[in-house]
């Protein structure tokens, strides 16, 4: 019978295990990506176990234990064991990030469960060609701000590389000073996550782009392949002194990837109103919906 003791803490050395598993069962949500988990590990304390070729992830955030649906072929007995574990932990929502397919399966096999949408964790997915070309009336406001930036500034773009990595880290430290990361718990943890990602950038197989204004790095974007059709944007940071620079870095990345990838996943909005408004303004093609089950509902 599955036990919490079967879960081991996630480490960088586990990347090959996740890579191999995801070749057979591609991740559906940005939070399942190894880069996301290992970079945010200090905050979310990711653990995992592999049982009968099903990968099960557990997090511990603010002493709240949460499990994810098994990643692999659906199996009623394994789902039951995960539900049993979830029922016995102290957590408001012990089972979370339930995708549509798992929700359908659970509804059929455990019909008493009720599913609560986790709106703040819905991933935003865009057609990469839309973000690259910004055509039509629906993108007029974005084009206007982008054109103002282009008209006011002379800028260049380049790939993230070993040669510019030190300068990028200096930019990120400046960005955190601008945003006062120390006073905001989410930004403080995001800083740790992105600095970890930059430290292990090449080992994690990440890609990225920088924008230079007057030869100085003023924006970066970090991304990676999620599946054969999709890239996911992990981080996008820009200087507050250049209005429209986020529009520029967004388009620059899209122009580079749209001939290879159909979709760009820009992750979730974490229930932040301004971030939600910004993500919706780019007209997502679809949202990847996820659900949770609360503790009171876990009657087995």
Helix content range: 25-40%
Q: Provide the CATH architecture of the largest domain.
A: 3-Layer(aba) Sandwich
Distance between the termini: 15 Å
Provide the succession of SSEs: EHHHEEEHEHEEHHEHHEEEHEHEE
CATH structural class of the largest domain: Alpha Beta
Contiguous low-pLDDT stretches (5 residues minimum) are none
Describe the global form.
Answer: globular
Mean pLDDT metric: 96
- The total number of structural domains is 2
> What is the CATH third-level topology name of the largest domain?
Aminopeptidase
Strand percent estimate: 15-25%
- Count every beta strand, where a strand is a DSSP E run of 2 or more residues: 14
Instruction: Give the strand order, joined by hyphens, for the main sheet.
Output: 8-9-10-11-12-7-13
Q: How much is the radius of gyration in Å? A: 20 Å
State the helix count: 11
- In CATH terms, the superfamily of the largest domain is Gcn5-related N-acetyltransferase (GNAT)
What composes the largest sheet? 7 strands, mixed
Structural class: alpha+beta
């Amino acid at each position: 019978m599955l036990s919490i003791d079967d879960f081991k803490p996630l480490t960088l050395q586990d990347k090959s295990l996740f890579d191999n598993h995801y070749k057979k069962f591609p991740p559906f949500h940005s939070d399942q990506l190894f880069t996301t988990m290992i970079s945010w590990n200090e905050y979310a304390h990711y653990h995992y176990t592999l049982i009968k070729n099903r990968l099960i992830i557990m997090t511990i955030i603010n002493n709240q234990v949460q499990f994810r649906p098994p990643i692999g072929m659906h199996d009623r007995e394994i789902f039951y064991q995960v539900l049993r574990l979830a029922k016995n932990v102290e957590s408001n929502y012990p089972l979370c990030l339930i995708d549509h397919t798992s929700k359908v399966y659970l509804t059929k096999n455990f019909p008493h469960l009720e599913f609560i949408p986790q709106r703040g964790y819905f991933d935003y997915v865009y057609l990469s060609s839309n973000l690259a070309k910004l055509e039509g009336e629906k993108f007029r406001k974005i084009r206007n701000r982008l054109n103002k930036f282009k008209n006011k500034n002379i800028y260049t773009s380049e790939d993230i590389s070993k040669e510019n990595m030190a300068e990028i880290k200096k930019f990120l430290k400046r960005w955190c000073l601008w945003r006062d990361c120390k006073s905001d718990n989410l930004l403080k943890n995001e800083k740790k996550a992105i600095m970890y990602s930059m430290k292990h950038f090449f080992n994690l197989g990440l890609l990225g782009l920088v924008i230079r204004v007057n030869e100085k790095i003023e924006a970066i974007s970090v991304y990676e392949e999620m599946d054969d059709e999709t890239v996911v944007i992990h981080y996008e940071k820009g200087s507050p002194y250049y209005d429209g620079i986020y529009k520029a870095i967004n388009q620059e990345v899209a122009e580079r990837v749209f001939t290879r990838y159909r979709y760009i996943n820009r992750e979730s909005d974490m229930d932040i109103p301004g971030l939600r408004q910004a993500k919706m303004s780019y007209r997502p093609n679809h949202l990847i919906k996820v659900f949770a089950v609360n503790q009171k509902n876990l009657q087995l």
